[in-house]
Write a structure and sequence with these properties.
two-stranded antiparallel ribbon, 2 strands, globular
Length: 180
């Protein structure tokens, strides 16, 4: 179970994991299970200036490609821990493999939470940031580096990335008051 992993590996508590989840969904969707923008908006190129496609859905605003990767990460995590892959993951992957429409907002809030927590933990470099986050009760960097998708590549544009990160963390800090 992903929460047990967080508690064992990062010294997290259920309260801390709840804070991470609530703060991410607060920043991403104001805790609403919504579509970022419509498919029609994307077709007409009415998308924002962020790095995503504009097709993110759900509480944590999961892009379509990110959903596929996240589902695979749940499979990989389950296999490494010797636990059964959740049925909802198998069903979602089957739909996507058949070319059927499936979005994160079709998952329950609990499933979206498990998807996000597992996706973050399976990301390269997340261990150090998660350890620090749960020790300091500060989750903005985890959100920014391991969940939020932005327009700047850290390696290609280090100065733009640093400025972008500063702006996004200020945004993060302005959002968390409303949902903590």
């Amino acid at each position: 179970d992903i929460e047990k992993h967080y508690m064992k590996e990062y010294g997290a508590t259920i309260e801390g994991i709840d804070k991470l989840w609530k703060r991410v969904v607060g920043a991403e969707s104001e805790n609403r299970n919504i579509r970022q923008i419509t498919t029609e908006d994307v077709k007409k190129k009415r998308v924002g200036k962020g790095g995503g496609t504009g097709l993110a859905t759900g509480l944590a605003q999961v892009e379509p490609d990110r959903l596929k990767v996240g589902l695979q990460r749940v499979v990989n995590f389950s296999k490494t821990k010797g636990i059964k892959v959740p049925n909802w993951v198998t069903k979602a992957r089957e739909k996507l493999a058949k070319g059927e429409s499936f979005e994160a907002m079709q998952l329950t809030p609990e499933q979206q939470r498990e998807l996000m927590l597992t996706d973050i933990v399976m990301r390269k470099g997340s261990d150090e940031d998660l350890n620090r986050a749960f020790k300091t009760d500060s989750y903005g960097e985890v959100w920014f580096k391991h969940w939020h998708i932005g327009p700047y590549d850290q390696k290609k544009n280090p100065i733009e990335y640093k400025n972008y990160m500063k702006d996004k963390l200020a945004y993060w800090n302005s959002r968390i008051r409303d949902i903590s």
